[in-house]
Amino acid sequence: MLLKSLLTSLVGCTMASLAIAANSTVATIEVTGNAFFNSDTGDRFYIRGVDYQPGGSSNLTDPLADTNVCLRDLPYFQKLGINTVRVYTVDNSLSHDDCMNAFADAGIYLILDVNTPDASINRNSPACSYNAAYLQNVFATIDAFANYTNVLGFFAGNEVINDSNNTNAATYVKAVVRDMKNYIKARNYRTIPVGYSAADIVSNRVLIAEYLNCGNDSMARLDMFGVNDYSWCGHSSFTVSGWSEKVKLYDGYSKPMFLSEFGCNEVVDSRPFTEIEALYNVEMTSVFSGGLVYEYTNETNNYGLVQIDNENNTVTELQDFINLQSEYNKTSNPTGDGGYSKSSDYSTCPTYEAGVWEANNTLPEMPTAASAYFKSGAGEPMGTILSTEGDCDAEYDLEISSSVEATSSSEVSTSSIESNSSSMTTATSTTTSSSKSKDSGNLNIQVPTIFKIVNEIMNYII
Ligand SMILES: *[C@@H]1O[C@H](CO)[C@@H](O)[C@H](O)[C@H]1NC(C)=O
Ligand SMILES: *[C@@H]1O[C@H](CO)[C@@H](O)[C@H](O)[C@H]1NC(C)=O
Ligand SMILES: *[C@@H]1O[C@H](CO)[C@@H](O)[C@H](O)[C@H]1NC(C)=O
Ligand SMILES: *[C@@H]1O[C@H](CO)[C@@H](O)[C@H](O)[C@H]1NC(C)=O
Ligand SMILES: *[C@@H]1O[C@H](CO)[C@@H](O)[C@H](O)[C@H]1NC(C)=O
Ligand SMILES: *[C@@H]1O[C@H](CO)[C@@H](O)[C@H](O)[C@H]1NC(C)=O
Ligand SMILES: *[C@@H]1O[C@H](CO)[C@@H](O)[C@H](O)[C@H]1NC(C)=O
Ligand SMILES: *[C@@H]1O[C@H](CO)[C@@H](O)[C@H](O)[C@H]1NC(C)=O
Ligand SMILES: *[C@@H]1O[C@H](CO)[C@@H](O)[C@H](O)[C@H]1NC(C)=O
Ligand SMILES: *[C@@H]1O[C@H](CO)[C@@H](O)[C@H](O)[C@H]1NC(C)=O
Ligand SMILES: *[C@@H]1O[C@H](CO)[C@@H](O)[C@H](O)[C@H]1NC(C)=O
Known about the structure:
The protein has 16 helices and 13 strands. It has 462 residues and is of the alpha/beta class. The chain folds into 2 domains: 329 residues, Glycosidases (TIM Barrel, Alpha-Beta Barrel); 31 residues. The strands form 3 sheets. It has an 8-stranded parallel β-barrel with strand order 4-5-6-7-8-9-10-11, surrounded by 4 helices. A 3-stranded antiparallel sheet has the order 1-2-3, with no helix packed on it. Helix 2 runs parallel beside helix 3, helix 5 packs across helix 6 and helix 13 packs across helix 15. The N terminus and C terminus are likely disordered. The protein binds 2-acetamido-2-deoxy-beta-D-glucopyranose (11 copies).
C-alpha cells in the first residue's frame, strides 16, 4: 500500500514535470533599417500597443508575474486589437511563463524596461549609479526574459534625461545600452533590440536621438528609439500637433523610431484618439513604426483606458477605450513597406556644448566586476528589493546641499507637456518618488563617503 502510493506519487511527479510545456513561440520581430519586421512573414511590423502599468508609477507592480492580472487584461487587449504592451518594471525573481505564454498565444509582444525604482541610472548622479550591482540586476532581467520569443525589445532607460541640465547622464545610458547588447551577444541569446525611451524635450530631443545612434562602435549604438510624445491633444491634426515637423526632424534616422507613450489628456471629455489615423499613415510610417498609448489602466493621473476595481478584480471599459478601439478598427497599416529606409548611416555624434549637450563621446568602461556575468550569466535574480543606487542621491544632495532643496515632488505641476509626461513615469526612469529622495537626504550629511566606499567595493566583489 505504502509502496504503491509512493510509486503513484512518484509517477505523478514525473508526469507533472513532463507536463511542463515548452514556452509558446511566435515569430520574432527583427530590425532592418529603420523598421521592424516579422521574421516569419517578412511583413513590416507596426507597434499597436498600450503602456501597461497597473498600479501606476506610485504602486509599481509586476503585471507579468500574476495571472490574476495579466489574464484579466488579455481579453481587453485582444478586443482593442493590439500587438504590443510596454511594461515599466518587473520582478526578475518571479516566473513570467504563464503571462508571457498567454500573451504569445495571443500574438502580443513585450517591450520591457529593465530598471526598477531602486536599480536605475540616477540622473543626478549617473556615474555613482552605474555599478556592477546595477548591471547584475539588468542582466538578470535579460536572463529572465530572453527566452520568450515575444519579447520585442528592452528599454535601457526611460526619460533619464528629462531636462536641459542633465544631458551628461546620456553617457551612462549609452554605456548601459552597450553593456546590454554585449551581454545578449555573450550569452548567445537571439539579437533582441535594445533601446531607450526619451522625453520629448525641445532643447535636446534630436541630440539624444543622434547621440545614442552615433560613433563607430556598433555595439554602443541602440537598436530602436522610443519618444514619449504628448503633443497631439484631442481633435488635433498632423500639422497642428507638430507631428509633421517631427517626421522632418527625425527623417534619415537609421533606427526604428516609435512613440513609447502618447495620448495627451488635455481634452474636455474623453480622448478621441484621432492621431491613430495619422500614426499608421504613410505620412508618418517612413520614420515612425507606430506607438503605445499611455496607458491601459486608469490611475490618479487620469490617463486610463479602463478602470480596475481592486475589490473584485474587474475591468470596466472607459470611453477612451471605446474611442481607441474604434480608431484602431478603422485604421489599417499602409500596404507594402510603408516607405521605410534601409539606410544604415548612423548619426554623427553631437559635439559638447555647455548647458545644452554635455554627454561624453568616450564612454566609461563597464565596471570590471560585471564582466564575470558575461561568462556565467548574471546569477541569482534579486527582484525589486535591491537598491543599487546606494548613496547616489546623498552624494548629489551634498553637492547642492546648502542652498537648494534637492528634489521636488514628481506630482508637482509643471507648465510643459514634456514635464507632465516625465512625472508620470519617473518611478521607472531613475530616482523615484520625492519621499525616497528625502529619505536619502536624511542619511547624507554624515556618511556619504562611507557609502561611496561600500559602493566601490561592491563594484569589485560582486
Ligand atoms: C520559458 O522561458 C523562461 C524564461 O527564459 C524560462 O525560465 C523557462 O525555463 C522556459 N520554460 C521552458 C519550459 O522552456
Ligand atoms: C498596489 O498594488 C497591489 C497589487 O495590485 C494591490 O494589492 C494594492 O492594493 C495596491 N496598493 C495601493 C496602495 O493601491
Ligand atoms: C536641474 O534643474 C532643476 C531645476 O530646474 C533642478 O531641480 C535640478 O536639481 C537640476 N539638476 C541637476 C543635475 O543639476
Ligand atoms: C532558455 O532555453 C534554453 C533551451 O530551451 C534552455 O536551455 C535555457 O536554460 C533557457 N534559459 C533560461 C535563462 O531560462
Ligand atoms: C573609432 O573612432 C575612434 C575615435 O574617433 C578611432 O580612434 C578609432 O580608430 C575608430 N575605430 C574604427 C574601427 O574605425
Ligand atoms: C480615473 O481615475 C481618477 C483618479 O482615481 C478619477 O478621478 C477619474 O474620474 C477616473 N477617470 C475616469 C474616466 O473614470
Ligand atoms: C465590483 O465591485 C464594484 C464596487 O466595488 C461594483 O460596482 C461592481 O458592480 C462589481 N463588479 C462585479 C462584476 O461584481
Ligand atoms: C472592426 O469592427 C467590425 C465590427 O465589429 C469587425 O467585424 C471587424 O473585424 C473589425 N475590424 C478590425 C480590423 O478590427
Ligand atoms: C570623457 O570620458 C573620458 C573617459 O571616460 C574622460 O577621460 C574625460 O575626462 C571625459 N570628458 C568629459 C568632458 O567629461
Ligand atoms: C499637465 O499638468 C497640468 C497641471 O497639473 C495639467 O493642468 C495639465 O492637464 C497636464 N497636462 C497633461 C498633458 O497631462
Ligand atoms: C525629472 O525627474 C525628476 C524626478 O526624478 C523630477 O523631480 C523632475 O521634476 C523632472 N524634471 C522635469 C523637467 O520634468
